[in-house]
Each structure stands twice: as C-alpha cells, then as structure tokens.
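hiii so my PI (J.) wants the whole complex modelled not just the main chain, which honestly fair. so below is everything: four entries, each one labled with what it is. i double checked the lines twice but i was tired so who knows lol
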Amino acid sequence: MNIFKLLKKNKLFYNFEDKEINKIFDCLNGHINKYSRGRVVAEIGAPVTEIGIILTGAAVKFIQKPNGELENCGELYAGDMFGEVEGYTGDHTYNSSVVVAEESTILYISVDTIVKQCSNTCACHQKLLENVLSCLAERIDNINNDAKYLKIKSMRGKISKLFYDRYLAQGTETIHLGFNRNEMAEYLNVSRPSMSREMIAMREDGIISFRKDEIVIHNVDELARLANSAR
Amino acid sequence: MNIFKLLKKNKLFYNFEDKEINKIFDCLNGHINKYSRGRVVAEIGAPVTEIGIILTGAAVKFIQKPNGELENCGELYAGDMFGEVEGYTGDHTYNSSVVVAEESTILYISVDTIVKQCSNTCACHQKLLENVLSCLAERIDNINNDAKYLKIKSMRGKISKLFYDRYLAQGTETIHLGFNRNEMAEYLNVSRPSMSREMIAMREDGIISFRKDEIVIHNVDELARLANSAR
DNA sequence: ATACGTTTGTATCTTTAGCTACAAACGCAA
DNA sequence: TTGCGTTTGTAGCTAAAGATACAAACGTAT
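here's the output for the full assembly
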C-alpha cells in the first residue's frame, strides 16, 4: 500500500494533497523507521520529541502502575499514532510505553516543528496544525462521551443511552453495534450476565428486540426517556 | 484587578509578558464585552468563531438533552474559558450554551487567527499556539484520570485510588482533599452514606484516619495495593 | 453560652448487579 | 451432518451499594 493512502487514513493528514505530504519530510523532519516485534518505541518517562504514526503493523501501549507492574492499555494499528498528547502536556514525557507487536513501520514527525513557522511558505504547516488541534479537541469530545456511560448507575440507563446514541447517530430504528456482548459489557463497564439479564427484561417490556449485534428499537420514546433520565 | 493579572491566570497566557498580552488585541482580534445576568453568550448549535475567557463574574454551562431539556453541566469563573474545544472540533458549533450568571466581562479572541501566521513577526502567536495545544492535551489527561475513578467498581477501590493519587501528588501522608463528603461522593459518583460507611471501615482496618477534609494515611502500602488492584 | 445551619456519622431496609457455573444456540469447517 | 469452538442466555446466590431518615458533631454568629 502506498504511503500517501496510508497517511491520509490518519487524522493529522486530513485534507492533505500528495505533494503536501511530501513536504513533511523536508519541513517537519519526517522520517520512517522499521521495527520488528518486541521493539520498544516509546518508554514511560522518556522525553517526547516526535509524534509516531503507525504506517504498517501493530503495537501495544502499556501504562505503569505505581507498583511497577505494566498494564496493557490499548492497541495501535495502521493510521493510529502515539505521543500526540504527551508531546504537548506538562513535562513532555511519555506516560505510556509503546511496544511493537508485529513487524511495523512508523513515521515520526517533530513535535516542535509543528508549531514553529518555517521559512518555506508552505500550507502544510498550517493544515497540520489545524489537524493536530482538531485531533486533540475531538479526543476530548469522545472521552467525555464515554464518561457519560460510566456515570450512569443503573444497568437499564447505560444500555438505553448506548442504544439511543446509536439510534441518533445511525438514524434508523435498526442499529448495529459492532460489539459482541462481551465487548459491549466491557465498554459499559458492567458484567455480561447482568447486562444480558437487563436486555432481556427490556425486550419483555417491548422496548427493543435483538439478535447478535443487531438491535431493533420498538419504543423510541421510552428508550429516549430512559436514556435522558438515567442517573 | 488589572487585566494582565487576570489573563495570566488563564492557561492560554501562561508565560506571557504584559506587552505580549497587549498584542492580542492587534493580532488576534481580541475584544472585551460586558454582560449582565441572564445574557446568553454561547448557544448550542451556533458557530464558534471565538474563544471566550471570563475576566470577571461567572457563567453557567448547559447542555441540551435530546428531549430539549437543558441541564446544568458546569460553572465558569474568572480565568475559565469556553469554546476552546468546540472551536477545533467537527462542525465548529457549540455543544453547550453559556449563560452569564452575574455581571461579567468576557474577552474574546478569534479561533482562526490563532492558527494563522500574521505579518507582524510576533512571538505571541507562537506562544499562544503552544498554550492552546497544552491546554487541550492537559484536558485529555485530566478527563482520562477522572474516568479511572469511574471505572473502579468497588467503593474501597475508588476511595483508595483517590487518596493514593493525592498522596503521590502532595507527597505527604497527611493529605487535604479540598472536598467535603458530599463533593467527594459526587466526584466519585457514589452515594455519600455508602462512602462514609466504607471510609470508616478503612479506618477500623487501620489504613487511614480523618477529620473533615484532612486524611492521614497510616498504611501507605496497603492503600497502594488497594489503589492499584482496584477493578 | 446559645441557637441555628451545615456537615458528618449511623441504622435499617431494599435493590441491584456481581459472580459462577452451566445450558442452549450459533457459526463454521471437516 | 457431525462436531467443536464461540457466543449468548439462564439460574441461584451473595455481596455491595443505594435510599431514606435521623442523630450527633461542628462552626459560627449573635
């Protein structure tokens, strides 16, 4: 797969032309490295000078618990990046380590040069800057939204909000989760059997029906009421 | 209070000199408005072209639930701002309304000009840009951290993590919360009596003692264990 | 010192979700 | 079609936290 297509999958390069992407290598100290499985490409506490963007392969992120233990806290695939938050916070050091999970290529661009103006009057700086900003701002939106589910205490409330949000986003009474029960339970931070139990109760109440990851909403008003009054 | 001192309380102007702040009004279309109680200064769905920074007074943020109802979702005081997230996300419209709660003055600076380079070679753009970035990145850190408390299921786990985090931050075995029980319970998203019950159980177990918002940690190791193993 | 409002502690009861272990249904490949 | 692994549904029990309502302690102003 060619590098331009790959990079365009990354939000940092939204709206970029091929030739603008090329300029990255001149203006932003862009460079590409290749790693094999097990290689540590970011280490907790180390200074962040570059944003890393996975071009091919995959990597795993680990945070360190105060007792020293490492905990898996997410996976990175082609188009994903790391360091874009830490690069601009407090002490500019990684707060998670990134370990390559399979043979991977990673593009790095310099954190500093993104905000610095360069002598070549290129549009790419400007665009990249806007994209970095949207990227961070969007992330805030997303996390905030996820936190909403966590704050709801009742099982029915959590489920209702999830389904209702999907209904609003997809616009149809038949929605697809892209989750199996396990994943959905994990996302909502509840146990799967308890969740199943409540979904079935909601079905008995005529609010929804479902099969696998396809949910049909039979009583939108009630679902909306549940989602909005959830505490 | 003078405007320079006020602005320096805001993270956007971290590291600014007085004369650099003055440039804001030239380069960034900075302007100040005065409002009385009840005035709506941001409306859900309206385009965001400026970041608003409260100089004096106070305001309240409301989100709109899908049924149309408004819900208080936070207060803004001197030094706080609004629009800095929405200004750089998706459709660049407010997702919460801001209503002035008491006579207030608000400084606005243009969202666009922050990322644009200006002809005057001034350092203020550059600095402001870095500050906007840190601001957003820091926010991500903070929300992520808050979400951690919400994900912990056991009462003891939540309490332990909160106290242990404070212990790590303050570095002393006597920590001050800056919370009363009600506020703490709200922050942890639990009921106050249940929380009280568990705090007392932890005291009986010799882990902590407390009086008002002063907590003394007697068994740091155990607290750490609880905080780190919390599920 | 007293009286009042606020914060914190206590008791009782109920509700809810967690957990475990198992059964049924499904999907897919041999 | 049969069999196997995975996903989903079910049951019973337990533990834990919610709700409510009240009591005690504290702070503070008169």
